[in-house]
Design a protein that fits this description.
It is a single chain. The protein is an alpha+beta fold. It is 33% helix and 26% strand. It is built from 13 helices and 14 strands. The protein has a six-stranded mixed sheet, with helices on both faces. Strand 1 and strand 2 form a beta hairpin. Helix 1 runs antiparallel to helix 4, helix 1 packs across helix 8 and helix 4 crosses helix 8. The longest helix has 19 residues. The radius of gyration is 21 Å and the shape is globular. The mean pLDDT is 90.
Length: 370
């Protein structure tokens, strides 16, 4: 308040062990984030605040959020957002890559081409153009219109579905924050089997009861394919694609499509000759490395991440770090960014060529559409 009265915009501040970041939305709502200071760029915390604000817009609409006339009434209305906000902040469920990267997580399987046909047919029957198949919280396939949604909308819809209590079907009113923030749509979801849901965004019709009987007719023939993809959910990419044995995990992002593919179990059987890092530690290392690179050396889909790299006289295309327990390498090529975690035994000089080879494998495989 002191800064704004003197025409000064203060966006963040730090203490010895904490960082405080805040943002004002539409001159109406102020959100403040307090986190442990990990020396990451402010863009990551600003992105979280943006997701939290748009989570409220998604479920109650922009008008209700920015034109609150009764604070007590507003507090009651936004209770519907609590589970989604908890999911964004990692309070409910583990913190995912989609809220970190602002790109939706996908699962790349050979069966996706077949499942796309099932989804297109079902979406047409639902009188919609927005359809998506979620498997273990990640997008397997989606219609062209679904992919045309903004990065914000893709990420929020994915997080919303993973924040809800599992049930056979749902009919939820949603406002698309970037394309239709004032007009409610209906998000209908149907559980095909445990861990797999199909979703459509519709207008007033058809009703949930009209569409429920169609589930068995449209999706029963796909059951074997669905089971095959679900078995791949810990790895997230085809088993016939062999990566270097030193690879502990990777994160691949396409800045143009707002999609990301990640794996902390690149060896399908879960084993690895170097067991110094558990799967949860690999995930933590990968996230920490991403936050260190983006906003400092690389720009990405995260809003505001371009400010730090723009201060350099040239654009960094590659970077790496080495520690006693692991090594990391980051590479940019066109719209793709690849962040790799390796065991500590890999020679430092070999990381660049192996990362290049991995990027080529992941972007040229016909079963992977990032």
């Amino acid at each position: 308040m002191f800064g704004s009265s003197h025409d000064v915009t203060l966006q963040s501040t730090v203490t010895e062990d904490a960082k405080i970041v805040w943002r004002v939305f539409h001159d109406s709502v102020t959100l403040i984030a307090i986190a442990q200071n990990d020396d990451a760029d402010d863009c990551h915390y600003s992105n979280l605040l943006n997701l939290v604000f748009n989570a409220m817009v998604l479920l109650v609409g922009i008008e209700e959020v920015i034109n609150m006339k009764n604070v007590e009434k507003f507090k009651k209305e936004i209770k519907v957002c609590y589970n989604l906000v908890d999911r964004i902040l990692g309070i409910k469920g583990s913190w995912g890559f989609c809220q970190l990267t602002n790109a939706v997580e996908i699962i790349a399987a050979p069966e996706n081409a077949v499942l796309q046909n099932f989804l297109d047919a079902f979406t047409e029957a639902a009188e919609s153009v927005y359809g998506c198949l979620f498997i273990d919280g990640k997008v397997a396939v989606a219609t062209k219109k679904w992919w045309s949604l903004s990065a914000n909308e893709l990420v929020l819809l994915s997080l919303l579905l993973s924040s809800l209590t599992p049930c056979t079907s749902r009919d939820i009113p949603v406002y698309l924050p970037d394309s239709h923030p004032t007009v409610p749509h209906r998000l209908m979801t149907f559980q095909l089997t445990r861990g797999i849901e199909v979703c459509v965004i519709c207008g007033p019709s058809p009703s949930l009861t009209e569409l429920e009987p169609e589930i068995l007719r449209f999706w029963k023939p796909s059951y074997d394919s669905l089971r095959s993809v679900l078995k791949l959910s810990s790895r997230n990419f085809p088993t016939n694609l062999a990566l270097d044995h030193n690879t502990l995990g990777f994160l691949l992002i396409n800045k143009e499509t707002n999609r990301c593919l990640c794996s902390i179990s690149p060896t399908f059987n879960g084993g690895h000759p170097d067991e110094t890092l558990s799967p949860s530690q690999r995930k933590e290392v990968l996230m920490s490395f991403y936050k260190r690179m983006v906003g400092t050396f690389f720009s990405s889909v995260v809003p505001g991440s371009e400010s730090g790299p723009s201060e350099f006289s040239h654009q960094a295309m590659e970077s790496y770090i080495t520690t006693e327990t692991h090594k990391c390498y980051a590479m940019m090529s066109g719209p793709h960014q690849l962040f790799m975690v390796y065991g500590e035994v890999i020679p430092t000089y070999a990381m660049r060529s192996i990362t290049q080879k991995t990027l080529s494998l992941l972007t040229k495989d016909r079963n992977i559409s990032v």
